[in-house]
Specification:
heterotrimer, A alpha/beta (about 425), B alpha/beta (about 190), C alpha/beta (about 300), B: alpha/beta, Rossmann fold, 5-stranded parallel beta sheet, 3-stranded antiparallel beta sheet, 4 helices, C: about 300 residues, alpha/beta, 4-stranded parallel beta sheet, 12 helices, globular, PRTase_dom (chain B)
Chain lengths: ~425, ~190, ~300
Amino acid sequence: MAFLLKGAHAVDPQVGLDEVVDVLIDGERVAEVGSDLEAGQDVQVIDATGKYLVPGLVDMHVHFRDPGFEYKETIETGSRAATHGGFTDVATMPNTDPVTDTGTGIRYQIDRGHAAGLCHIRPIGAMTRGEKGEALSEIGDMVLEGAVAFSDDGHGVQSAGMMRTCMEYIAQFDRVAIAHCEIETLSGHGVINEGKASTRLGMFGWPALAEELEIYRDIELCRLTGCPLHIAHISTVKGLELVKGAKAEGLPVTCEVTPHHLFLNEDDIDTTYNTNLKMNPPLRTPDDAAALREGILDGSIDCLVTDHAPHAAHEKDCEWEIAFFGTVGLETSLPLMLNNLVRTGKMSWQRLVEVMAVNPRSVLRLPKVKVERGSVADLTLIDPDREVTVTEDYLQSRSKNSAFLGQTLVGSATDVFVAGRRTLENGVVA
Amino acid sequence: MEQAKPKAVIMDEQAMKRAVVRIAHEVIEHNEGASDIAVVGIVRRGVTLARQLTDAIEEIEGTRPQLGSLDISFYRDDVMRNVAPVIHGTNIPFSVDDENIILVDDVLYTGRTVRSALDALMDLGRPKSVQLAVMVDRGHRELPIRADYVGKNVPSSHEEDVRVCMKPLDDRNSVEIWELDAEKNAGGAN
Amino acid sequence: MLSVKNLIDTYSLTADDITQILDTAASFEAINNRPGIKKVPALRGRTIVNLFLEPSTRTKSSFELAEKRLSADSLSMGGSTSSVVKGESLADTIQTIDAMNVDMFVCRARLAGTPQKITENTDAVVINAGDGKHQHPTQAMLDLYTIRKHFGHLDGLKVAIVGDLAHSRVCGSLAPALKTMGAEVTLVGPPTFQVDDPDWFGCPQTSSLDEVIEDMDVVYMLRVQLERMEGAAIPSKREYNRLYGLDMRRVNHMKENAIICHPGPMNRGMEINADVADCARSRILNQVNAGVLTRMAEMYLLLGGESNGISA
């Protein structure tokens, strides 16, 4: 099958592209990029006038709950949500049941991804067995089966010694260690940012320091071991300053931020105790959110991720203190960025492509994807004017726990191509 | 609203005074003096009236009956629709046990206020008897209740409001009939 | 009429709401003190469910008594008998009870926000009888009643709330209510018991009781939850009593007319010494008495529905 995308505004900072072009996709690859391309036999022409064509979007931090919690999400339903949101690749976190801490577990994820046939599943393996923080998992075996990175996401590795061992071991494989930074003796029973929100709503606070202190520790371990370090879901001003400092010293440190930490803050949690706003790390102060927005614009934050965390209705429709942490995000991530940052002129299209496509591939050591002749045709077509209203019906994810329910956002993906296959067609998942 | 005029003024200050004095005589006659009676007014205008009645009895007999006030807010049978905006409190500084209580209110209409007042009174003790004195009886009873002493019988319709105005709660002493407007009608009026 | 449909927290109450509750409670005082029948038919035929998802004897019995004195029909559920313990969700529990047509829920819960969640599952009126570390508004109202009764007013009074501030729903609801009524509140406790953000309350916070005690009109001692205590946030009972306990030596520095309050149950010898609890300044039993009055007032005002004039 071949497609000719006519009149798309292609943006790819990797090849210095920012103009209206025609793009021919033939088989798995981009066959031609040029102007006034003619459609040959058996080529489907897609009028992309007014739309933006970018390298396929990558979400390098999602939870697909498969195996073990299929009632929340599966690799199949998660893939649908990812495709609906405009993504060609997702990196799945290993806190499944059993924990994805073996080559077999990695192979399972990839195979299920192929079976779903929508997007590339890029599994992240657990650093320690069972994410218990006690013993190394079979990291090498997982690398050989296709693991793209290692993380105990969901927990911090509490023992500095264990983290050092993990990073020293990972360093031999050209893979990053992704750190969920949380010192549990400080976060304790915390369920909300410590400070005004915890005081106002009468619940145990989760202090910024619990995150920042472990970011500091892991940066120093990066210096010691040489293992590239990626800080997951950064949420505070101070944490970001630490990452900036490490980068300035030339350490191999990168970081990511979620849309909810960019666009929500602790003041959005009111006395209705909307549990879809219960996050780990928690929503921080308005100042933190402003600094993170600045960071993703100025380059100090490398990647935008969703931390897509599906939970069943009964796990959220309950008292805040016993509700599960997290929000789904795959289907709101791009619309939020377009609506809140790109349309307002704060973020360029080039920068959007960097944080949502180019940089995540680089952190995950994936082959580059470019809007260029010969590249794999993993592409996302975006209509900057297409409005979406975030309702339960809009969400294709098996779970509906979105922190952004009720919002109307302007700008979203209309078409996605994965290795030349059209997985999203005019906003409808294939 | 206050600019509007009543449909009719049926008692003026003098007529009201005469009625109080007449009721005082009737009470004394019926109870063979004033030594065994206590006067209890229902909040709010019944209290003013009870004070006037007590003054009149003292004038005639030379002894002053005991005087109390009864707030029936917590005894109303329509509490589900009405919460009294201000509760004035019951103030009965004597035991009601074995007293002849003269219960006083301004207007007798459905009888529900008096029923509530009887309940409230019974919760305070066991009076020997309870007699009812009102300035106006406008008919339309919904309960088997009648007044022992009446200032004036005023046949009225449901579309009318009979108001007893008394200083200092009002700026004048008079009994007036007003046309009830639909808006105010919602809960029925006094 | 109150400006709120449910009584969930004190920071939603206006000064007028609080005054109405206290004034109405005052008229119930006469009923509670009379020799005859200590009960009125104000809520006859109304059904109230006391849902106590956390053990409580004092608050529960106070509510039950208040309900009886208003002639409401009430049913108490909770503790180990509730199905919430059996794994049923809160929403299911509430919808099940709600299907039986009740007029009011009185809820005590271990988790913050539970009463608010209940409002989302019923049209009945909800009164928060304490939720986690969050709020305990009916305790605040009885405290205000007690304090107002002694001083005749609340504005301008200086009140110290002393003890385990961070884990205290009593502090969380009393401090905002006092502020609304124009009192000045100072929070006093060891740093490990202090609130995360005193600025949100608009109150100064200090760790020295001795520095502030002589300026205070009211010294309000909070109960220290023993289970949260030794070895964790404070080293020992003994040390706590020495630094923060209210003993006669400290009481003697109080203003002449100043009073002492405590929400109960007291740990005698820890946050308050036995002789202090029983001294003339102590208003602790008055608080218990005020609890019934103010709860009667709250239920009466909240179940009254809309005011549309008075029928005769």
